[in-house]
Design goal:
Layout (H helix, E strand, L loop, with lengths): L9 H25 L4 E5 L10 H7 L18 H9 L3 E7 L2 H17 L6 E3 L33 H7 L16 E7 L1
Antiparallel strand pairs: 1-2, 2-4, 3-4
Length: 189
Amino acid sequence: MNGDLRSPPLQFIDFHKKVKMISKLEKYVDLAKTLNMIDAVLITPQDICFDIRALLKCRWGCDDLCQNSIRCHVRDTTYQERMEMVKEYNHILLAHSHDAHELSKAILEIERIAFLDGYYFAFGIRLCNLCEDCSVKKGLACPTPLKVRPCDQSFGIDVYKTVRNLGLPCEVLQSKDDIQNRYGFVLLD
């Protein structure tokens, strides 16, 4: 019996796999910052606060709600299904910006690069603000329908609580001149 040939305990291997995975995913934190995000952090589904009341704000409190719009469509999924989809992931990139347009572009670019890196289930969640002047809001067809991603509120994500719990700023704006803190998610697996 040679003690040197024994395998390390399973917990030791799992821990090292997680450390390696986090190190690989740090690439996306760095990428977010090169895409002009103020901040980006890796989180887990356990860090996301779900609250079905977010759907109230989505459906009755959002200026962008258009019942037949590609921007607001949940693709015949229930709140429970959308929540379970997010919880199936192990890692999520949370990106922070003051600019909705830049955030939307960054989320899609990070999703694209993660997909090309082999994370074939990479998926962004962020209200679409790709176009400076949205055609859909004018009743026209979306020029980039394959780039539209679902809004965090339609998933029941309480962004305020989620980011505050992580020590990031998010306050209710008191005037149109206040600086907005915008957030987007890239699910990574």
